[in-house]
């Protein structure tokens, strides 16, 4: 198996350096043109691929314009427009209710603070972090999606299982200037190489420092299960 560097801080910096070289154009893959579209796209992306979300939001964003339009849309109509998205009924409710709150309590503008964002229906810390970072240029933390969760455990950066606890572990060891980019790098590497079910360790730029590397390691630290 790979041998991680002596400290988690050194490990995190080395991971960022190598992944930046491997994915120099890494960035958010959701498509949007304003903060509301970003918020809606991120809500829809939960347990759904960004590719699928982008396919559906192209027509969605042409149909509805502004928070009032979403808030006033019939539940059945909005759900039907999202029917290829996972949990589309619940997500339609979240979007309608979040947009109603934005229209009524925030003068139609997507909030720019963590506290206000997480009060919106369907918005947790991960979604709020994405909206703050890409909608408001405010970086308060690290977005922990399934790729970040998997890679940070496999690479020995954390032993925590839940996103908020993982974020707490990552923030002190990932250089603050890379908090936003760290997520995109993990997503790209998680899609291309370090996949959930069949990671390509033979072609991984991190294999030599990865304690989960399948060459010798018996355990996938992401799940705790044997390879």
From TrEMBL:
Q: Which positions fall inside the HhH-GPD domain?
A: 44-192
Q: Which CDD domains match?
A: ENDO3c
Q: What does the note under cofactor report?
A: Binds 1 [4Fe-4S] cluster.
Question: Which cofactors are reported in the record for this sequence?
Answer: [4Fe-4S] cluster
Binding, [4Fe-4S] cluster:
194, 201, 204, 210
Q: Could you tell me which NCBIfam families the record lists for this protein?
A: nth
> What PANTHER family does the record point to?
A/G-SPECIFIC ADENINE GLYCOSYLASE/ENDONUCLEASE III (PTHR10359), ENDONUCLEASE III (PTHR10359:SF18)
Reported function:
DNA repair enzyme that has both DNA N-glycosylase activity and AP-lyase activity. The DNA N-glycosylase activity releases various damaged pyrimidines from DNA by cleaving the N-glycosidic bond, leaving an AP (apurinic/apyrimidinic) site. The AP-lyase activity cleaves the phosphodiester bond 3' to the AP site by a beta-elimination, leaving a 3'-terminal unsaturated sugar and a product with a terminal 5'-phosphate.
This one is known as Endonuclease III
* Gene responsible for this protein: nth
